[in-house]
């Protein structure tokens, strides 16, 4: 349901308002934002637009604020994080969010406000939020125990050959928006450089202690940066660090995810791993991925676990490096999504495929678990990107992505419609990057 339709039903609607960038530079063939200048200039624009937003007692944000307040720690009042730019725009309003690192406002409007925002020259786009959620993995049946040595996924991508050259992702910060992370796990100790918790209303809670509300986040984090544990090396970029945020499940998930992306940009991440999505294709969400790319951040996104002729957003927008899953026999994992997107020209998603079935990684409680899903495949590719970024820190994200996709080979038993470009090869990707740098 779009914003107009929601207003007709309830008299108001939640909307994202994307501000036009004010400053830009060219880097290679891509327009990149002059980030600090644009961010500062957009604060005044956002202040002028805030009057178009209103608080409604029965809006989703108001109901969540009343019925699901953030839990107090040790009986103390919870402190909400808001930098001076945010405070300058939203004041004390509970019905408006401002994300200065993205140039996005988020709040509730009526018909008059929606019309005014849509017609304002400073506004690039206005759209209703989707409901994002976890891409749920499949829990594998009891096996004989974890692999030993180097995991099959690392070996399949030939990542261990890059380790031999000293590439571990050292110096690269990866954004990780998931169910959180158990930073006390032996494989993840010292790996979480920053942690943020976004509560059910979408607000960031100050002084949050890292933790995993389920196990999905710790599992994907382990594939990204985990150290060897229980005689298994499974983290693709064990020298990289994470900026990890808890954003799913429950509550105002669009606001929680947007808050995490805004926070991750401010942390200086180079890659964002998103093992989440919404079934179907919503081209408006390309805006978020485009904004990340303008800030020289590579979005690596799981395509979904809904099988052929399906895909999830934001994995299926053109600006994402989207990832499907293969198994240990070099066949498509049966639940891996894939779809031809009816754009001009037509486009196949996912972009490529990676190890995603029977993947061992860490879960809370100093344990290991085998899971299957495109949620597991995406961090394999994001970790590979971190190794390449360590080798060429000055390279653009386009150069990194082109090296990865250029190295791909599709196994003979997999059709283009299911596997698109195929499986990346770390050694070939490194050679391609060196040839173009």
Short overview:
This protein is an alpha/beta fold. It contains 14 helices and 24 strands.
* Strand coverage percent: 15-25%
User: Kindly state the mean pLDDT as a whole number?
Assistant: 91
Number of helical segments?
A: 14
Name the structural class.
alpha/beta
Terminus-to-terminus distance: 46 Å
The helix content is 25-40%
Rg over C-alpha atoms, rounded to the nearest angstrom: 21 Å
Number of strands: 24
Low-confidence stretches: none
Strand order of the largest sheet: 12-11-14-10-15-17-19-22
* Shape summary: globular
Major sheet description: 8 strands, mixed
Folded structure, characterized:
The chain is of the alpha/beta class. Helix content is 31%, strand content 23%. The strands form seven sheets. The protein has an eight-stranded mixed beta sheet with strand order 12-11-14-10-15-17-19-22, with helices on both faces. It has a four-stranded antiparallel beta sheet with strand order 4-5-1-6, with helices on both faces. β2 (24-27) and β3 form a beta hairpin. α2 packs parallel to α4 (84-90), α8 runs parallel beside α11 and α12 (397-406) packs across α14.
Describe the SSE topology.
Layout lengths: L2 H8 L2 E7 L4 E4 L2 E4 L1 H15 L10 H8 L16 H7 L5 E4 L4 E6 L1 H9 L3 E5 L5 E2 L3 E2 L9 E2 L1 H5 L2 H5 L9 E6 L13 E7 L5 E2 L10 H10 L6 E2 L7 E6 L6 H15 L3 E4 L1 E4 L6 H9 L3 E5 L9 E2 L7 E6 L12 E3 L5 E3 L2 E4 L3 E5 L3 E6 L1 H18 L5 H10 L9 H4 L6 H11 L1
What are the defining features of this structure?
437 residues; alpha/beta; eight-stranded mixed sheet; four-stranded antiparallel sheet; 24 strands
